[in-house]
Design a protein that fits this description.
2 copies of one chain form a homodimer. Chain A has about 325 residues and is α+β, with helices and mostly antiparallel strands. In chain A, about 50% of the residues lie in helices and about 20% in strands. Chain A has a 5-stranded antiparallel beta sheet. In chain A, helix 1 packs across helix 3 (about 35-45), helix 5 (about 80-90) runs antiparallel to helix 6 and helix 7 crosses helix 8. Chain A starts with a helix and ends with a helix. Chain A binds a DNA duplex (30 and 30 nucleotides) through helix 3.
Amino acid sequence: MLSERQKAILKMIIEDYTKPVGSKSICDILGCSSATVRHEMNDLEELGLLEKTHISSGRIPSSKGYRYYVDHLMQPHDLSEEALEKLEQIFKSNKPALTDSISKSLELISELTNCTIISLGNTSHENFIAKVEAIPVSDTSVAAIVVTDKGHVENRTVVFDEKIDILEIKRTVDLINKYIVGTPLEEVGDKLEFEVKPIIKESIDYQKKMFDAFYEFMSDVSENQSVHMAGRNNILKSFDDVDKIKRILDKFEDREFIKNIKEKENGINIYIGGESEFDPDVSIVKSKYRTNGEEGTIAIIGPKRMQYDRVASLLKYIVDNLEE
Amino acid sequence: MLSERQKAILKMIIEDYTKPVGSKSICDILGCSSATVRHEMNDLEELGLLEKTHISSGRIPSSKGYRYYVDHLMQPHDLSEEALEKLEQIFKSNKPALTDSISKSLELISELTNCTIISLGNTSHENFIAKVEAIPVSDTSVAAIVVTDKGHVENRTVVFDEKIDILEIKRTVDLINKYIVGTPLEEVGDKLEFEVKPIIKESIDYQKKMFDAFYEFMSDVSENQSVHMAGRNNILKSFDDVDKIKRILDKFEDREFIKNIKEKENGINIYIGGESEFDPDVSIVKSKYRTNGEEGTIAIIGPKRMQYDRVASLLKYIVDNLEE
DNA sequence: TTTAGCATTGTCAAGTAGAGAGTGCTAAAA
DNA sequence: TTTTAGCACTCTCTACTTGACAATGCTAAA
């Protein structure tokens, strides 16, 4: 258990830290001598909460120190006037489309925090098929379109080996529509597999091929994850090692990696340094959100030395407003 | 007019240049003494084709030197076996969708050249409206969808102030469809303005509002420019000044700037350093392409010291294949 | 026109010195 | 027992120096 003074010292070091913090800079504020602070710092270091870069440097917080701070010391941080105003502008304007709110908020958070923001949205949640359509594009291809009742539209050009028959296409699409309009996106795969396929089976080979193409497309749609990113280049403000920057930027392009950002738990979750398997000097503050029509994760990615209190409060505000 | 030897020296310096090139490294190949080469280099420097980083350093090519090289010395560069193979894989496979070919080629060029590739595509070229559709999403909004005969699909959620009437929506959409199916994308604006609007004018106020919303959406679609980018992070391989990198990466995010990449002239065009108003150390090799269904520009962006011959040949190959 | 020789000029890497910041330890004071 | 003052010590950072090296320009001879 840390003493109140130890807590105060840890808090000050973390909130002040741009370069290593020495005992002198703290003792004035605490009203005791630098030697006393040095003692306390020594204790904190033995507990693994602080670190030194070399034997005679000031202290910097360790990952464990940040962890302690985030778990016990951090207090909600009031949003600045300016931030609040801009946020309200986004959310209070007359009912914007959801994706608009999201991308605008991301842009804003990235400016306010100098971090990179990634949002992963999954449309399948509470979306029902409103319509499927196919429009011939050439002799051998059609544009396939799926619309959900929440207004999400997905399309793909489906290419066939042989020449297509417009009437057959129409028949297949009508059939699919008949069975799956109103189906939740998550269940489309099953429904096509177990209810529509048996019917198709008895019809001609050609129609079956078409069905397969649509089936593949629809399955992709129901698994579809939209990715937004804002402030990608803010990483350059936080680090000055080009190699490190490159490594991190490359991860932003890596689909597999991005997918794994998806958050399981509820509420604000904070991953410090190595905890996020991202980079030892990078932290992630993320949260799940859930609206009718979409469910997803927003992740704020920045240097380990970030203003956790501010970032967390900001994210909470966004998620709360998104959810209503 | 440059002597053959001067040309040879300039060519060697440009094609060898990773760090400043000294006279000694060249004289062996040319079969004359280093002093002779120094004389020639001095002349080339007086012509403004070479530069020195300081008084006793080797020479590096100036922008003017690169210009001369590109205009007079450069020869088409055969593509490597490996590159050709991969390119053929992209283009010879059974009729992929155009956007697929483009994004795959971009990815490949960025790998082969270590440059950043941006493509600006404009769908409006030779695309005709195949269908317009509107699907109610909530009490006050509809998802509007436009499909062209070449398979491009665009959609937007249109939000109204008042509660919508599904039947009225349907009537408006039917009307729009009746008049503009088959219209080239470029002419949609005019057609709506001069042929459809007069009819609407006599109908109820409500329908007019709806028309306006669609009108705006359709105009946006016809001006729509798709942007693809690949190898964005390759910039980090070419420079090591974080500030410079940041400046360039920020430009990649700047919509206005990206739009201006659009190429007017035909064929391969090369902009060296400052010529591209991008950055004094950045060059751009770009070309227009034109297919049925889309017309656009592909730009290869890299350091001034790039392999112009290789990059230009590669781009030519891509554009030629895209156009057939 | 070309070459050899040489002084000159600048970069780069390694090493040195001094200032500064911060620590740990010890012994004295509260 | 806790806090403080004092001091030696350690390490970084910056500026400066030094020597090796690379390339140059110039001059005079081939």
